[in-house]
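A student in our group prepared the protein record below, which I am reviewing. Here is the record exactly as it was handed to me.
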Amino acid sequence: MERKICSTLVDSPIGLIGLSATQKGLFSVKIGCAPNSIGRRCEDREVCEVLKMAELELKEYFEGRRREFTVGLEVVGSKFDVMVWSALRSIPYGEVRSYRWLAEQLGHPNAYRAVGRALSRNPLPIFLPCHRVVRADGGLGGYSGGVDVKRFLLRLERENLFRS
């Protein structure tokens, strides 16, 4: 089967977000895109459905109505990176964990720097919530979309945590 890649731009409170998908699922999320920065528009029905679902779920997330994403993901990376990214799903909405905590969960307690590097390569920020990982001292650490975006996402989740 030919791999068809389609992309779209989504307006959000943190700026334009570029979403790219294949028939298998969403595989790239780019925060802070320029208005003319997307690749091929969607022409494949299956891929269009993935993008529509991702866009809807992202909209609901920013409105405080979604805490978990269900859109299919196509996660591509090294074995270690994929293991780190998968573990992100265990961090509850509205909560944070440290890089060290995440390394310990993976059975590599001294690999917190490697965990940080893996998080910096996360191709699906927000959907794989690396913004919920902070330094052990409570500092925000880095974020591919910028520290201000990380701060915004954490505040959004905290504010909506007890909303029904």
User: Anything to note?
Assistant: The two ends are 43 Å apart (CA to CA). The chain has two domains: 6-62, 79-160.
